[in-house]
User: What shape does this take?
Amino acid sequence: MFFEKVILCGIVLLILIKVFFSLKQICFKKIVEAEHKKDDELYKKKKEKKDLEKRQELLRTNQLQVYKENVDIVEIMKPVGKWTQMVMHNGGILLRLAQLIKSEGREKGFWELFVKAQASTQGKYKGKGR
Assistant: This one.
């Protein structure tokens, strides 16, 4: 009777070990499949992103080519306002004005500095002559 119980417990133990290892293999396979799915999803996302960037770059180059091909100068307009003329014709005056405001802005007013900037860009700077 004791011998039969030992054999029965041994068989049950072997069956439990076999079930445990088979469940372990099934779980391991599912984990590996899930990792592969994640890797595949990441790969697909990266591939879609690269394809989108390629399409956008292609569209940009096509738009630039279309723009470059269709350029026609119809007429050259003169600036209408005083400030527009000043900005277009005297490009260095605003830069010089900004420099003067930075250096002498607290001592003098805007219009004094503006006249000084105009004079310095036109070569009419009033300094001490020797």
